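Consider the following assembly input.
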Amino acid sequence: MADKNKRLRKLNITEWLMRWETMLFFILVLIIIINSRISPYFLNYVNIMNTTFNFTEKAIIALPMIFVIICGDIDISVASIIALCSVFMGLASTFGVQTGGLVLIGCLTGIAAGFFNGIIITRLNVPAIAVTIGSMSLFRGIAYVILGDKAFTKYPSSFAFFGQGYLGNSGIPFQLVLFAVLAIFFAIILHRTTLGRKIYAIGNNPIASRFSGIPVANVRLLNFTLTGFCSGIASILLTSRIGSTRPNIAEGWELEVITTVVLGGVAITGGKGNILGVIISIFLLGFLRFGMGLVNVPGKVMSIVSGFLLIIAILLPEFIRNIRERVFLGKEKIRRGYKDETSGV
Amino acid sequence: MNLIKRREFTLLILIIIQILLITLRAPRFFNISNFRDILDDTAILFMVAIGQMLVILTSGIDLSVASSLAFSGMSVALLNQYHPEISVFIILFLSIIIGFILGSFNGLLVAYGNIPPIITTLGTMSIYRGLVFVLSKGTWVSAHEMTDSFRLFPRIHVFGISSLLIISLVVIILFSIFLYYTRTGREIYGVGGNITAAQYVGINLRKIRYLVFALGGGICGLSGFLWVARYASAQSDTAIGFELQTIAACVIGGTSIAGGSGSIMGVVLGALFLGIIKNALPVINVSPFWQMFIQGFIIIVAIIINTVMSQRNQQLILKKREL
């Protein structure tokens, strides 16, 4: 009996070590160590805080994207929603709308764009990928129609706070605080409410979920609207940070957001994943990009790395699962299989 | 089958109306040399859209087509720049091979790595695009660095038809034969139509999934050479955003994004529809910045029409069964 307990505990530790989040965490630590080797200034409080400016906007979109992907959908129009919101804010700003109004316009445009995606996807039963490919072109198209080859650069000075401001004298960027608040909010919804359980259920089996009374279409609609809303927030932060709007703003971000979520252990086929993994993955990718920046890797090469990471992040869990089954569960499986056979199941 | 009810027929009528409307606004649009220009401009889209259609038929999608095209285009342009003695036909062949390899990489990941096509190609889209940059070190290959035989290849005219258009027609015909009259071609439809049934009748799913990406890649490679030669420049962002045009051509042409149905004629007409819009915008004094918006709008409308139509068809089938 004691022997068995010991064996179980050992298994738990190896299980814990083999967990996706644990591995991500160790890779994160490794990246931090390498970065601090490359630059002695990396581990400085002020520097670390300022590094986060480069990825909190993407991180904020990654949160609702977790819901979307767990439900088995995908949204590749997020970067275009950013462009759309930014252009509308810029347009409003030229008409003299003040900071409060701009924030409202940013959020509402995002919500409207996400709702637009969601309503077509859920009411007409069209695959999310098809619709968001279309709206990716449509939303950025609107940005090009309004802006052409020009740019909006006149924003009220108080608007700069969202993307550049710090919380009091603490040196913590406002963006990061906002992200933390949203992350807690999304974590509570996903892991502590019935809505969260419904999201997992839909991802695992949408038809069974529908038959057990879950409003599948409405939950998915909510996911897309939330994604639009968070893209709107990201757009406010980004526009405020760089202080200008061009139609090609945030181009290619959809890839990075999806990479972050998938690397965080959310199964692209739906039904699996958690917030913690994605949060670690956000910092991992953020610091990795920063580290590559330290050694002067060009942006195009970074996108090669992002692309490979996305593919590896999906290949690896499958690979690990295979090994794990062979090493740890091989014997168990044989015994269980035998038992099943004798009990006639 | 009833001719009038077919998608291709509706699309043809739409294209005729489209041409008439544009001619009303700008009469100079309506002349033979302009139509020839439109066909030459759209020739590459015809081909790549067919490659895209193969993938969509198996209920996948290929976002990496534009990047594959740019990569093979850049490779052969650099080859031509540094080894001008190499024959243009060898270059043509090489570009197909390079595209085929890039497509095969996608295909292997999808078929044997079990990664969904959208994710695979989203990743390789940026990998291939980044590799173009690495390969060229960020520089361009421009017209004066290319040999005449390379640069003028798409402009050779046979009986008044450009070689670009001839190659495109050959691709259209070859793939029509392949899709409609070979076993493998029918299996492609089978995989997209009903994957479980396809498995039960013994279709090799992995082979088909790999094949559509590899063939699509081959077409991209061929198009890469033609693109670079026709526009006489190879850059890091050659054909950027072109993948959306190919997807648009497919959905306008009635290819179901869920897989299993679509015709080459439809896709060609869909591409032509887009090509005419692109060509007409400057003629009717609309800023080219509208193009992306119009394209996105058409994609969404076409998807909605496709879905509503197929749902109605299913209801009709159900009704027939009740009788």
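The longest strand of chain B covers residues 141-142. Ask yourself how this observation constrains the way the partners meet.
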